[in-house]
Each structure stands twice: as structure tokens, then as C-alpha cells.
Amino acid sequence: MKFEQNIRTNDRQSSKGNQLKWENEGIWYKADYTGYEGLVEYMIFHLLKKSSLAENEFVCYDLEEIKYGTVIYNGVKSPDFLAKVGRLLL
78 near 64, Cβ under 8 Å? Predict the structure, then answer.
């Protein structure tokens, strides 16, 4: 995915607060910062698919190459789940 415009960054922070995130047309993109964060989320998603959890109880991640300006990041993408999380917290 190439980002030049029409993106929304997340004002929520990752655990260390340094992972780059973008939202574009209902899809969140998360770029690796220290190496393999996206790969870990992708692998955990596939493990959870085999668990007893319902598919609405975890987030689906797909691997993605993200181009932002002249920099290319490895990372993941997922459907926007923040609205659903907000409804669950109410």
C-alpha cells in the first residue's frame, strides 16, 4: 500500500508508543518499527483462528508492504476495529 494523502494516524499508542500506524478507507496499516511486530501479529491471528474464540473476538491481520514517501516498511493491515471496540466499552 502506498500512502501519500487521505490517511488518518492513530492517536492511541502501542505499548512502547513508537509503532507507525495509518488508517485509510477503513483499513489500518501498522509498520514494523523494531523488526517483526507485524509478523508476530499475523502469526498470532492464525493461531487464534484455530482456538475456541469466535472470529469477532480477535483481529484479522494480513502481511503488507507499506510505502510512505520514499520509505518502504514491512508491516500488517487489518480492518478498522476501533469503532467496534468503542461500542464494547460503552
Answer: no
